């Protein structure tokens, strides 16, 4: 490798720590940072509609001009690679004044290097592995996987396998990570990093299996389908928690996925004012509250003697943070400042379940109150 790329981080533990911090502990950006980025983006030579004398003096333009396009294809690609690693290493070494800009520029350089027509396998490896590192820092785990696989075509390295495994672990695709780890062990059996990642993937997969067994709404489902449905809920950011309400055993409660990949849920409806309940056996994720509740309130309920509860007089809520999530990662970083969250009638069930303070207590539970009743005030004032 050229001297300008000597600072490349090959210690996976360091790389992983920085990556994890970026993807899990992001702080809100200030308005000044946002405005600075906008100005940078507008004025950057890559985005300019025309060049001005002032722009020609910018260090960004001069750097890009030096890179492109002097020399042979492999020389140009090496220049882009070196500049890409310079930007990336500023982030990895925690020496960046603006991480987003440096990562964006590094990806651009790796892209440009890969567009050059050459057959230097070592160079291609470093371009792909560099872009994989940059992409994993910004949470582009699918692109990270693709680049790590491409890098392996040109050079077998422990690093390409570990980045590949981590790209799967971060999206909770533990089976894939285990498969890649098993393959990596055949080539790098003494690698501490590979062994540690494989153990992590196996441990997390085992925890998932245990959580799946705790979900009462999937007990009647075949084992292979259980995992498929659980992963579908995870991919749709639905958080499942411990059970709060217990229905009679004769009531069949089951979550299932249809041929179009849509989830169907049993939904419990509570009317706290009258200690009454309704139960909808099959509520598809893309159906709104209006879709079901108009039918529910088409006729007066036997417990509603005064006929107060009508579709145009009701409000729908769910209880925020009502239970403990089965997966500790799903715990909200901050508690809701309200016990009940109001839902719009046009919201789909999926939108409700995806709310950051909604932990589904095995199956969805919604509460309905009459907006004109005195009970509503005491209900909303619950602590």
TrEMBL record:
One of its GO terms (cellular component) is nucleus. Transmembrane segments: none annotated. CDD domains: CTWD_Cns1-like. One of its GO terms (biological process) is protein folding. Residues 258-372 form the Cns1/TTC4 wheel domain. It comes from the Eukaryota. One of its GO terms (molecular function) is Hsp90 protein binding. InterPro entries: Csn1/TTC4_wheel, TPR-like_helical_dom_sf. Keywords: Coiled coil, Repeat, TPR repeat. Residues 191-218 form a coiled coil. Pfam families: Wheel. PANTHER family: TETRATRICOPEPTIDE REPEAT PROTEIN 4 (PTHR46035). This is Tetratricopeptide repeat domain 4. It comes from Stylonychia lemnae. The lineage of its organism: Eukaryota, Sar, Alveolata, Ciliophora, Intramacronucleata.
